[in-house]
Amino acid sequence: MLHLTDIQLQDNKVFLSMLSHVLSVDGFYFSTTYDLTHTLQRLANTSPEFQEMSLLERADPRFVWNGHLLREFAAQPEIHRFATPVMHGFITMHSCSINGKCFDWLLVSRRSCFRAGVRYYVRGIDSEGHAANFVETEQIVHYKGSKASFVQTRGSIPFFWSQRPNLKYKPKPQISKSVNHMDGFQRHFDSQIISYGKQMIVNLVNQKGSEKPLEQTFAKMVNSMANVMVRYVAFDFHKECSRMRWDRLQILMDQLAEQQDEFSYFLVDSDGKIVTQQEGIFRSNCMDCLDRTNVIQSLLARRSLQAQLQRLGVLHVGQRIEEQADFEKIYKNAWADNANACAKQYAGTGALKTDYTRTGKRTQWGLIMDGWNSLIRYYKNNFSDGFRQDAIDLFLGNYSVDEVEPASPLHVKKDWKFLALPIIMVVAFSMCIICLLMAGKSLSFISQNQLACVQTFCKRLPDTIQYKIAFQSFLKVCKCGSGDWGLALYHYYGKNLSYYRKQC
């Protein structure tokens, strides 16, 4: 530190704050005895030589978030035992009981460190086929030595597109026109097929508006690839479930049921013998691969868990998970917590639609919380996510600090408009709130004065019928918000209007 200049010392403080920011986000996990980066099925299908490797050697590099920090350890096998891979995502474990039979239920989500980043800054795929916000989610059951698991994935729509923040609530997605989409698209699904087998794409984006071109391009590219291992289904989540019709999600579940039965799940008995293997996965996505995606994944996982628990003998024939109140509460809350963890790591706030995941129905309070989280997302996406993205790139080694670099990116001068914009936004928002608060008082004051004037005017009218007509007309005008009592009277007493207005 002594050889650093004053500017470099200041830069070093900023870089340290970036690293601290990344590490302050919840969801980092490690184990010194168990390989968290692999699914049960992958671990069960490995060789004895693989089992003898150190955790660092055998870890799936997609899910090792401290890989850059361990690069010098990786080059020296004799010190591998001191290096522990760290996974980022979500893990929850519960000891549960149904029909007096105790079992352990786990939910594990592993976030990929390839093409990692924040919501609007990282979309689509890179040239290697790595998708943004790629998460592998595994549901595990342990019962009397037997183990069962069901794996799903989520990830950004796998071609080259972007959605850069521009102060609009929902920036328009832009599909790149200068690259060959099929190369990256093919690489993405080649690697997915190697890792998981058959692919069932569940695309949940809107099929109209700004999201429509993404859905159309995705479907077109799947058809052009013509790979029998990859199937595609589109479901317009927002359209189908509009007006609180969340029961219509069953339409999609029925559509996917046959495919899910074909994929099956992984099951190994207490003797270590593999009974069934999962032959394929559901790759779900929406725009962010957060809210809509998590809802669908929880429903698919529930259907698989139903079959697993029946096969293990925990559930009796004809029994359903939904009928087990205690476990149902644990299940829903765990999936809602999973949604919140993934959303905070990618979008900066808790997930939307978690009221449905927790309770099985949409609530008014849930809508209010969704609105609040959407406002927080809007601010963060436009004004603070740039720092978050830089911090992640620094932590993962996508950007390396060069001591001899003449000018640090931290010293790039920002336009005064960029610096003033947050202040302008805060002032404008404050003025809107003040206007809304003052409007009620002002309207009340005006209405009382108008009422007094109309009453004074109407007392001068020759009979009560005309009084009633004028007064009723005034009330109609006030109700529609015109604010001019004279307008109500003009239709009946036009030529005398100016005289009576003066009297008031």
TrEMBL record:
<dbReference type="InterPro" id="IPR002013">
    <property type="entry name" value="SAC_dom"/>
</dbReference>
<feature type="transmembrane region" description="Helical">
    <location>
        <begin position="418"/>
        <end position="439"/>
    </location>
</feature>
<dbReference type="Pfam" id="PF02383">
    <property type="entry name" value="Syja_N"/>
</dbReference>
<keyword id="KW-0472">Membrane</keyword>
<dbReference type="GO" id="GO:0046856">
    <property type="term" value="P:phosphatidylinositol dephosphorylation"/>
</dbReference>
<feature type="domain" description="SAC">
    <location>
        <begin position="19"/>
        <end position="348"/>
    </location>
</feature>
<keyword id="KW-1133">Transmembrane helix</keyword>
<keyword id="KW-0812">Transmembrane</keyword>
<dbReference type="GO" id="GO:0005783">
    <property type="term" value="C:endoplasmic reticulum"/>
</dbReference>
<dbReference type="GO" id="GO:0043812">
    <property type="term" value="F:phosphatidylinositol-4-phosphate phosphatase activity"/>
</dbReference>
<dbReference type="GO" id="GO:0004438">
    <property type="term" value="F:phosphatidylinositol-3-phosphate phosphatase activity"/>
</dbReference>
<protein>
    <recommendedName>
        <fullName>Phosphatidylinositol-3-phosphatase SAC1</fullName>
        <ecNumber>3.1.3.64</ecNumber>
    </recommendedName>
</protein>
